[in-house]
Amino acid sequence: xxxxFEQAQTSAITHTVRCCGAPMVWRQWxxxxxLLLIHGNSGSWTHWVRNVLPLARHYTVLAPDLPGHGDSAxxxxxxxxxAFATSLWQGVDQIVGPDTELxxxxxxxxxxxxxSMAMQQPRRVRRLxxxxxxxxxxxxxMPALRRWRGADPAEAEQIHRHNLQASMIHDPDxxxxxxxxxxxxxxxxxxxxxxxxxxxxxVEAFTGLVCPVHGIAGEFDGYGGNVAQQGEALRKxxxxxxxxxxxxxxxxxxxxAADRVNTMMLKALARQTA
Length: 274
Prior knowledge:
This protein is of the alpha/beta class. The chain has a single domain (5-273), classed as Rossmann fold (3-Layer(aba) Sandwich). The protein is built from 11 helices and 8 strands. It has an 8-stranded mixed sheet, with helices on both faces. Helix 3 (81-96) packs across helix 4 (109-120). The mean pLDDT is 94.
């Protein structure tokens, strides 16, 4: 498994709280202002495995497994960005208190949920970090992925490696055995048809953001097309937004270029607390 996994896993405080009727597992590290990290499509808190401990030196970091992902139970009732945002707020309220202000960071699908959270309770969101390749209102271009279910273990490993390079990581030399294992574990534990979530995106939650926003995208993130143009689209839609591109990284830049992204995140977050 990923080298940083054991340290992050063993040092976490684990909470299991009921959110919208279903048990949801959260992990917590550090002290200080609250920072909520929301993982991506078919993932878990381990999408942030290389980020939680560096960020926890400055923040109380919360990283849930979304309903139907990781260690969390399948959702009860509606599956939508709005419903999942409500579940996330319920978890926050139970763990750190219903009046707590916080910053949000969302990766990929998690960034859509962060937008919905900000729309629901804008006064509590201090800053929003969006880690993804596309910042227009248009649906992202989905890469062609190979099916892994039903393949024998050796073939499945090669498929996962192919799909990681096609959709998540730019440099194939950075796709280690531990990376494949982490990715495969997340996929195997996901019980949710995430297309329901992606299709329920609240575009008005993005275009109506009023809090400070910082976009971070890998230079070779395939989901948004021309990344520099996507940064311009972000600033055009949200004049208060700032944007940074992560050189030589793909969609999962927070993993592939963790040190650089951690620095970007900390600098962006510091602008709101200085």
